[in-house]
Write a structure and sequence with these properties.
alpha+beta, two-stranded antiparallel sheet, 4 strands
Length: 197
Amino acid sequence: MEATKESLSGSDSAGPSTRRGHLGIPEAVFVEDVDAFMKQPGNESVDNVLKKLDEQYQKYKFMELNLTQKKKRLKNQIPEIRQTLHILKYMQKKKETTEPLETRFLLADNLYCKASVPPTDKVCLWLGANVMLEYDIDEAQALLEKNHYTATSNLESLEEDLDFLRDQFTTTEVNMARVYNWDVKRRNRDEPGPSNV
């Protein structure tokens, strides 16, 4: 993808001026002077240039799909973490008393079971990938607060990356239109018109 960016932008990658965007997303360089751009090595054919630009566009689309899926996962994960933190805080209040905690838990889809939980200072957290670990309530709360902070900051970062990616879509689409229009004008100029015959 970096090679596509370099060949399309015509920039030299020898110096530190080669910039990489968010999460390694290459920046689409706006083509201001199409004539100069088409004279660069590797840009001899309009079809090849449009093909490269389309490939770059498709890569951006693929990145958008992946980032959107990550965003959806995080948006589902954050409320679950908040809910678990809320439950832990409630359990901390109840651990000082001797009376059991009355609750319901999900046994299967739409099937709940009543439970009586004795006061405890231990909880088990489901970490995923069929892994569950036992923690002290304080340790579990610290872990979940850290996970909540990480998830919210990752969500903010993903939002920024998606905004950056949308800018790259727009730039690539404009570049494709400019190259195509340049080719149409060139062909109209090269073809003999009815007044030239």
